[in-house]
Each structure stands twice: as C-alpha cells, then as structure tokens.
Amino acid sequence: MGDNKQRMLAGEWYLADDPELAADTRRRIELCTDYNAAGLAPPEERDRILRDLLGSVGEDVRIRAPFHCDYGYHIGIGDRTFVNFGAVFLDAGPITIGSDVQVGPNVQLLTPTHELDAGRRRAGWERAVPVTIGDNVWLGGGVSVCPGVTIGNDTVVGAGAVVTKDLPPGVLAVGNPARVIRQL
What we know:
Structural class: alpha/beta
Shape: globular
Radius of gyration: 16 Å
Number of helices: 4
Mean pLDDT: 95
Order of helices and strands: HEHHEEEEEEEEEEHEEEEEEEEE
CATH architecture: 3 Solenoid
Largest sheet: 7 strands, mixed
Strand order of the largest sheet: 3-6-9-14-17-19-20
Helix content: 10-25%
Number of strands: 20
Distance between the termini: 45 Å
CATH class: Mainly Beta
CATH superfamily: Hexapeptide repeat proteins
Low-confidence stretches: none
C-alpha cells in the first residue's frame, strides 16, 4: 500500500489523485454500475455485488439504486438497514451505519474535507474524517451528514437537515445546521 493511501486511511492529509486510489475508484465504478443496473436481477445477485463493493454488510440490508460511493470498502452497514434511492456515501474515511437504520432518498454521508488554504486546496489536498450512524436511526430525505459527525442511537433527523455536529441518542433534530428540538 502506498504512502498516500496509508495517509488517507489514517485520516491524515492526502492527495486524492493518487494512482493507487484511481485503481480503487475504477473498481468502485464497475461495482456501482453493476449494482445500479441489477434492478431486475435476483436478490442474491444484487446482494453478492453489494458484498463485493462494501466493507461489511449485515443481514437483510436493502439499498435501492442508484447508489454511489467513493471506494465502498470503508462502508459498514448493520442488519436490517434500508437505504432509499439516490444515496451518496463518500467514504474516503470510514462510514459506519448501525442496525435497523432507515435512510431516506438522496441522503449524503460525507467523510472528505478539503483544505481552507487556497493553494493546498488547488493542489488537491484533502483528508477524511469518519461518519458514524447509530442503531435505529432515521435520516429523512435529503439529509447531509458532514465529516466527523456521529449520530446516536434512536435519533431522527428531519428531511433536508445538514448535520454539522454530533447528535446525542434519542433526539429529533432538524434544520440547517441541524439542531435538537426535542427528546424522543
């Protein structure tokens, strides 16, 4: 494994246009294309593709196409989780999704972050910070979860919210930026 990929996996600053990462991207493109085109394929075939694409997949996981990710191998999904149409999981860093999670349409889970310094940003430097979604969470349609965020078990995030900071277990959060409006 090259130094650049090791830096990415360690959550350090790395260059995203690395040849080794480009090979991983080609792998992801092929598997996502196969998965997204397999709508009428038997469930076993779709499940096989998903297990080849993702780092770990629990039992009875359902992801509706189209589904898009950066690499796939940084994504772990727990049992009985449902992901609706149009999900974008940018997994330059780890994305961990618990069991019994409901993910609405067009949800984005984003681990990459970019340099604030214009010169370093222009040069392509980025780093990835993990996103963690607890068990029994519901992310409404169009929710965006920013790098480094953890959402606690049993929390509900309202449609269109932008989650920029950790959310505790058992709350309802809405808005941009998302804010807790009550305990559940």
